[in-house]
Amino acid sequence: MRYSILTTVLLLAGGSASVSADAPKRATDTPAKLDVHSSAFKNNEAIPSDFTCEGTDATPPLSWSKVPAGTKSFAILVEDRDAPKGVFTHWLVTGIPASTTSVVGGALPAGAIAAKNDIGSSGYTGPCPPSGRHHYQFHVYALDIAVPSASSRTELLSMMKGHILATGEIVGTYEKKATR
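Above: the chain sequence. Below: its structure as tokens.
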């Protein structure tokens, strides 16, 4: 009965009682899930040393799928929540075009902007934990807006609020080799 009344009210108001299956997803408090992968490591497994301070310190390759309709851009945030002084930002990237679904190791897609990480350099700084095994979260966000460059993790999260269509992550671990 409620559905019939709602349908009648919507139709009389010039609306529609159904949502098109191909209508763009709107940003909500519960975003859809992106599938995020790396050809360099599997979820919750060790990041190869090439992508750390003990190697070339290059970004690992990332790819994502299940991108919702309406995506205008992507952002990437890489953070270490095991850092001694709290969350440490290793990489912050905005402006990744909606047509891009991967990042080649060591490179940024055309149009993407790398902001300063928590050591103060623009770009990626690889895992380099002072002690023990740390967990590095590689977050990818599908957004319904094009986010300009962010100056910090806090600013990025604030700019993205209410604009995240989907999110996904892959977690890699790393522990520095013991020195002799």
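The chain is about 10% helix and 30% strand.
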